[in-house]
Amino acid sequence: MSLKVINGGCYMTYYYFCSHCKSKIGELDKDINSNLLGFNNLTREEKDEMINYLPNGDIIVNSICKNCEEYVTRYALNFDYDTFIQ
Ligand SMILES: [Zn+2]
Prior knowledge:
With 86 residues, the chain is α+β, with helices and mostly antiparallel strands.
């Protein structure tokens, strides 16, 4: 355990990774209330799936990068189109 404690606060780093291609999307190194990131709107299962808490206090957030989002959107459209034909 090596939590970064500054001014009595607990600072965690949020690392955002794409859960599809595993590329790093970005990171936030701020004392943010996780509620501000919208995690509060997620169900417990979604949180467990999306967020991994590391032993050092850092947080891995499984998200989706722009490339994969485009791909998934395109794939979803094609899928709907195939379904429509049938
Ligand atoms: Zn990706």
